[in-house]
Amino acid sequence: MRILVTGATGTLGGGLLPALLRAGHQVRALSRKERESSGRIEWVWGDLISGKGVADAVHGVDAIAHLATSGPKGRGAVDVPGTHRLLLAARRARVPHLLYTSVVGVDRAAIGHLRHKLEAERLIGESGIGWTVLRATRYQQSLDQRLRAHSAFPVMLVDRSLPWQPVHTGEVATLAASLLASGPEGREYEFGGPEVMNTEDLVRTWLEARNVRRPCLPVHYPGRLYAAQRDGELTTDADSRGIISWRDYLHPAPPALSDDFASEHTASPTSPANQPENDPDLHVYGGDEGYERPTRS
Ligand SMILES: NC(=O)c1ccc[n+]([C@@H]2O[C@H](COP(=O)([O-])OP(=O)(O)OC[C@H]3O[C@@H](n4cnc5c(N)ncnc54)[C@H](OP(=O)(O)O)[C@@H]3O)[C@@H](O)[C@H]2O)c1
C-alpha cells in the first residue's frame, strides 16, 4: 500500500515510518519542511493550517496515518481545522481509510487539548471515509523530553497522586501499522504501557537512569486535566498493552549480538578465544607489560 503519514517528523512518526517500511509499504511523508525523498519514502511539503500541499499529498494513496498535531499549546489548529481540511481533500481523492492517533481518556475527560482531539475524532467519524482511531497513553519518549526540560530547574516538582502509564512509541507504531494493514474498522482502540506508576516513581526512575541529581519537592498540580488524571481517566485497563516498561526504555538492552560474536565473547576462560596469545589487543600493547591501569586523579 501507499500510505500518507502526517506528523511524520514527530515523536511517533519517527517510529511509524520504519514500521511501515518493514511491513513493505510505500510511504509518503508530509512535513512543513522540505526534505529529500529516498528509497520508499517520498517526502512532500504541506501545511494543514493553510491547506497548501494537502490535495497533492493525498492524491493516489491507499490510506492516511494522521499523526500531525499542534500540541497542547496550539489551540487545536492542526487537530480540528487541519483535520477538517485533510478530510475534505481525502474525500475528494477517494482515500478509503484514515487512521487517527488520539489520546486515552478523550471520551472521559474532554478538557483542554483533549477536547480538540475528541472533536477531531467526531469529524473523522462523520466524514464518510473509512476510519480507525488509536488512542494511546503518554509516550515514553515525550515524557523523557519533558523531564529533561524540567531538570533545568534546581528541584523537580512532583505530584505523587497522579497515575502515569507511559508507552513506547515503537509499540504504538507497530500497532498503528497493523491497523492500517487490516483496513478501516470504524472503532476506537485504546493502548497503554505495561504498568501504571505515580509521578514520584516516574521521576526517580528517570533521575537515576539519566544520572541527574535533583531533590523532589511534593506538590499538588492544579487544574481540571490533572484532576481527571488523578481520577484515573487518562490510563487504560485495555487488554492490549505494550511490554516495554519505563525502566526498559530508560535502560535499553545492548544491541543483539550475532551468534559468532556472542559465542566468542561468552566462551569459557580456558577456550582458545580467551587465551592472551590469541588476543590481538595484547600483542599491540605488549600484554600487561608497561600497562598502567587508569586511576582516578
Ligand atoms: N506525545 C504523546 O505523549 C502522545 C500520547 C498519545 C497520543 N498522542 C498523539 O499522537 C500523535 C503524534 O504525536 P507526537 O507526540 O508524535 O507529535 P509531535 O512530536 O508533537 O509532532 C507533531 C507533528 O505535527 C506536524 N505538524 C505540526 N503542525 C503542522 C501543520 N500545520 N501542518 C502539517 N503538519 C504539522 C509536525 O510536522 P512538521 O513540523 O515536520 O511540519 C510534527 O511532525 C498526535 O496525534 C498526538 O496527539 C501523543
Automatic annotation (TrEMBL):
Domain of life: Bacteria
Domain NAD(P)-binding, residue spans: 7-142
Biased composition (Polar residues): 265-277
Record protein name field: NAD-dependent epimerase/dehydratase family protein
A Pfam family this chain is assigned to: NAD_binding_10
InterPro entries for the chain: ComplexI_NDUFA9_subunit, NAD(P)-bd_dom, NAD(P)-bd_dom_sf
Signal peptide limits: none
Residue ranges of the region described as Disordered: 255-297
GO MF annotation list: protein-containing complex binding
